[in-house]
Amino acid sequence: MIQLYIPLNFLGVIYREIKQSLTDLDKMFVLMEKEREVRDAPGAQPLAGADSTVRFEDVSFAYEPDRPILKHVSFEIPAGKTVAVVGPSGSGKSTLARLLYRFYDVQQGRITIGGEDIRAVQQASVRRAIGIVPQDTVLFNDTVEYNIAYGRPGATREEVEGAARAARIHDFIAATPKGYETTVGERGLKLSGGEKQRVAIARTLLKNPPIVIFDEATSALDSANERAIQSELRSAAQGKTTLVIAHRLSTVVEAHEILVLESGVIVERGTHADLLAQQGRYAQMWALQKSEAVPML
Ligand code: ATP
Question: Distance between CA 274 and CA 253 in Å, rounded?
Fold first, then answer.
């Protein structure tokens, strides 16, 4: 019984992580392997967290030997600022987010939060400091309240409602017959992509972490919905140290810095105005998206 319990418990932990993560369920087994590698160093202390500045210092990373995904990536997100990453599919954008959340350890260089190497501190404390709004939020077959409160277990109904209001999902929930008791997920009420994202935003608002990662949906929401979500995302990012994996220009325009990633290398960087002036890859993407009114990547 004990033998059975341990793996099941282990699976439960992994499952929770995946639910909140940027990964797909089919990567579960890869993650399980990795999870064993990403262990706290003996005597690791929690992240001090006095400062939420994020730094990637000469980071290189490969999931499989001989197939480098990130190559010598360096950037800083000053506390409270936003850095946006753009680039073609497969260029390594989500990998940056997975490394910051410490699903994997970097093979070269280091990632720091407030100057502390995230490999040297308790993994759980790193994850407490970070909120993720993933591309596709997976909901539990449980109540809306449970799904939102997952951001901060033990939150009161008032707190859940407050977060739902700020994420502009409260009216939708209140209009269902059972309100916050409505079961959602595969076996309950199905939510649209935009509604699910709002639940994820509400979770993040409730968690109120100093660092936020937004992995923007690639799938097209209709443009009115898209604009509305952008404004909720912006308010969730207010004052937070934010990494945005961006597919739409509207998100990146105000970023402190935009990184253009290609095959794991930062090929251009700067503000929106800097990059337009450079007339390089970013300027091309901008022109293309404006003319075609399609997602950038
Ligand atoms: P998209 O814009 O399509 O989301 P991305 O720029 O975020 O793409 P990543 O998800 O970071 O790209 O993936 C970068 C590369 O790493 C891809 O070639 C992908 O196939 C590979 N990759 C991602 N996850 C794994 C994994 N668990 N094991 C092996 N390779 C992986």
Answer: 11
Contact yes or no for 99/69 (Cβ under 8 A): no
Ligand 1 pocket test: which of 34, 63, 106, 107 has the largest number of ligand atoms within 8 Å of its C-beta? 63
Two tokens, residue 113:
């939060």
Nearest to 296 by CA among 93, 144, 104, 127: 93
CA of 223 to the centre of ligand 1 (A): 27
- To the nearest whole number, what is the mean pLDDT of the chain? 84
| pLDDT tens profile 130-152 | 998 887 787 889 999 999 998 88
Which runs of E-coded beta strand occur in the chain? 54-62, 68-77, 82-86, 108-113, 116-117, 130-133, 211-215, 241-245, 257-262, 265-270
Global model pTM greater than 0.90: no
| Contact between 275 and 260 (Cβ < 8 Å) | yes
Q: Summarize pLDDT for 212-248 with one digit per residue, the tens.
A: 998 876 654 566 666 777 778 877 788 999 999 987 7
Helix (DSSP H) and strand (DSSP E) numbers for the chain: 12, 10
Residue minimizing CA distance to atom 23 of ligand 1: 95
What ipTM was predicted for this assembly? Answer: 0.97
Whose C-alpha lies nearest to ligand 1, atom 15?
90
User: What is the length of the chain?
Assistant: 297
Which residues is 214 bridged to in the sheet? Answer: 133, 244
Sign of CA dihedral 124, 126, 132, 136: negative
> Hey, what's the torsion of the CAs at 96, 106, 65, 58, to 10 degrees?
80
DSSP conformational letter for 32? H
DSSP letter at 60 equals E
For tokens 């409730």, the residue is 206
